[in-house]
């Protein structure tokens, strides 16, 4: 029967176990290093993306601020343009009426003082005491405002007849209303000179 020397086999098994244990540690270390490298790469990528995201947000906020300023400037420009058109329209109507001799300056001044912003006058005609005002606006309530301002004029304008008609918009133009206001113009009666009145009273006595 062969004899087995156990004392000679034990060191051999220990020598085999030692390389296996060392290889496992190396693998664990490599895995940890790989994970750390991946974490660092993810952090760097996140930092870059986050920085780019902040830059995009700042650029967007800047562009929005510029767009708002441009929009405000456009609104102010539109309002100014409307006021300029209104003034030009008033001047045009006054020149037209003066050229056609369609009413005294007092009538034109009285109407001109009561035209709301947003009302565009097309014509003013007068036949005797009958006054006809034709115009347009994009805000229907301004027609009522204009008519009331004329009505509460201390009796200068009376017996109102207001007619309106909707003009649908299209092709980039907003809808508007045309109107015709007919009323009687009652010019104020000038008081006789004080000297004339006194002379009349003396003659009567």
Mean pLDDT: 77
General form: rod-shaped
What is the count of helical runs?
4
Low-pLDDT parts are none
Overall radius of gyration: 47 Å
User: Which percent range fits the helix content?
Assistant: 55-70%
Oligomeric description of these chains: single chain
Largest sheet composition: 4 strands, antiparallel
Q: Helix-strand pattern, N to C?
A: HHEEHEEH
Summarize the structure in short:
The chain is built from 4 helices and 4 strands, in the order ααββαββα. The chain has helices at residues 6-100, 105-112, 140-151, 194-204; strands at residues 119-127, 130-137, 157-167, 176-185.
Report on the architecture of this protein.
The chain has about 200 residues and is of the alpha+beta class. It folds into two domains: about 15-100; about 100-185, General secretion pathway protein M, EpsM (Gyrase A, domain 2). It is about 60% helix and about 20% strand. It has four helices and four strands, in the order ααββαββα. It has helices at about 5-100, 105-110, 140-150, 195-205, and strands at about 120-125, 130-135, 155-165, 175-185. It has a four-stranded antiparallel β-sheet. A hairpin with an 8-residue loop joins strand 3 (about 155-165) and strand 4 (about 175-185). The model has no long low-confidence stretch (mean pLDDT about 75).
Write the layout of secondary structure elements.
Layout: H1 6-100, H2 105-112, E1 119-127, E2 130-137, H3 140-151, E3 157-167, E4 176-185, H4 194-204
């Amino acid at each position: 029967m062969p004899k087995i020397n156990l004392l000679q086999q034990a060191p051999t098994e220990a020598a085999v176990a030692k390389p296996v244990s060392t290889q496992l540690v190396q693998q664990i270390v490599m895995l940890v290093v790989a994970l750390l490298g991946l974490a660092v790469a993810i952090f760097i990528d996140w930092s870059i993306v986050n920085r780019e995201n902040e830059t995009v947000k700042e650029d967007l906020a800047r562009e929005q601020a510029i767009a708002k300023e441009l929009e405000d400037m456009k609104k102010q420009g539109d309002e100014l343009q409307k006021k300029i058109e209104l003034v030009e329209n008033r001047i045009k109507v006054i020149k037209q009426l003066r050229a056609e001799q369609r009413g005294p300056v007092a009538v034109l001044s009285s109407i001109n003082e009561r035209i709301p912003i947003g009302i565009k006058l097309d014509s003013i005609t007068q036949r005797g005491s009958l006054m006809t005002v034709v115009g347009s606006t994009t805000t229907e309530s301004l027609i009522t405002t204009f008519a009331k301002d004329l009505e509460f004029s201390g009796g200068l304008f009376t017996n109102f007849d207001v007619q309106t008609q909707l003009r649908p918009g299209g092709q980039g133009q907003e809808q508007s209303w045309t109107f015709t206001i007919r009323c009687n113009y009652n010019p104020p009666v000038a008081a006789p000179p004080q000297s004339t009145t006194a002379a009349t009273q003396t003659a009567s006595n």
